[in-house]
């Protein structure tokens, strides 16, 4: 039989399929998320001291600029005066949160917040500071409790009691600042009214002297 040379035998090459880029990417599966985008760390909570310091700094800044809405520079100054660890945006959000909590307290009866008008623009509703609020309607007396049931006192160790006391301190600090600002505004209005009355009296006195002089000259001319 004839002998065949092994070098002359042609071996078939394996076929390779080339997929489009989109199909190749979908076949490989979705890309794994980066390690740095795992979970965002929440900002640190506000301490009672930082909340009270923010309330005082916010009140002082509003009294200094003399307007209700603060600018970005004003909020930066409030953050620097209250606590260096918080940004101006965090301080602004904290004040807005205190405003919402105060409004929710006003909708429900709360003896601690009675008589405190806070975080509202005093210039937007001047009638509230001048006209006294009407007395509430008389409600029927509740039935007297039985001697066996004792009234439970609030425990300072209970959850939420410390947070409410912090809000009350912040509300009281800003409320005292608003009261001082309103008293200053009323004093300035009284001083301006007094000066206008003095100027009007001086003008009338000058007119009277001028009229007396003219009458005297006319009388002298007739004589």
Structure commentary:
Residues 132-146 have a biased composition (Pro residues). Residues 1-44, 81-165 are annotated as: Disordered. It is a single chain. By secondary structure, the chain is mostly helical. It has a domain at 48-120 and 164-192. 56% of the residues lie in helices and 0% in strands. It contains 6 helices and no strands. It has helices at residues 21-28, 48-65, 72-82, 88-107, 126-130, 161-222. Helix 2 (48-65) crosses helix 3 and helix 2 runs parallel beside helix 6 (161-222). The longest helix is centred in the C-terminal third of the chain and has 62 residues, at 161-222. The protein is elongated and about 150 Å long. 10% of the residues are buried.
Set out the fold topology.
Elements: H1 21-28, H2 48-65, H3 72-82, H4 88-107, H5 126-130, H6 161-222
Descriptive terms for the model:
223 residues; ASIL1/2-like; SANT/Myb; elongated; mainly alpha; Myb_DNA-bind_4
Mean pLDDT figure? 70
User: Uncertain regions: pLDDT < 50 for 5+ in a row?
Assistant: 110-135
The biggest beta sheet reads:
none
| SS class | mainly alpha
The CA-CA distance between the termini, in Å, is 174 Å
User: What is the count of DSSP helices, taking H or I runs of 4+ residues?
Assistant: 6
Fraction of residues in H or I helices: 55-70%
Strands, total number: 0
Estimated radius of gyration: 39 Å
Element order: H for helix, E for strand? HHHHHH
Shape estimate: elongated
**Portion in strands:** under 5%
């Amino acid at each position: 039989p004839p002998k065949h040379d092994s070098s002359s035998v042609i071996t078939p090459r394996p076929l390779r399929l080339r997929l489009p880029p989109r199909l190749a990417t979908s076949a490989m599966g979705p890309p794994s998320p980066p390690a740095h985008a795992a979970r965002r760390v929440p900002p640190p909570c506000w301490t009672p001291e930082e909340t009270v310091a923010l309330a005082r700094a916010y009140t002082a800044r509003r009294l200094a600029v003399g307007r209700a809405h603060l600018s970005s520079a004003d909020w930066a100054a409030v953050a620097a005066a209250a606590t260096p660890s918080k940004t101006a945006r965090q301080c602004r959000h904290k004040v807005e949160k205190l405003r919402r909590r105060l409004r929710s307290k006003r909708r429900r009866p709360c003896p601690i917040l009675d008589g405190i008008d806070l975080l509202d623009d005093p210039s937007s509703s001047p009638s509230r500071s001048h006209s006294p609020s009407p007395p509430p309607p008389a409600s029927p007396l509740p039935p007297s409790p039985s001697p066996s049931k004792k009234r439970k006192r609030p425990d300072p160790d209970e959850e939420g009691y410390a947070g409410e006391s912090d809000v009350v301190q912040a509300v009281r600090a800003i409320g005292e600042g608003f009261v001082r600002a309103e008293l200053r505004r009323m004093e300035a209005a009284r001083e301006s009214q007094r000066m206008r009355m003095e100027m009007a009296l001086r003008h009338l006195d000058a007119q009277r002297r001028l009229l007396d002089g003219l009458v005297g000259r006319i009388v002298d001319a007739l004589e």
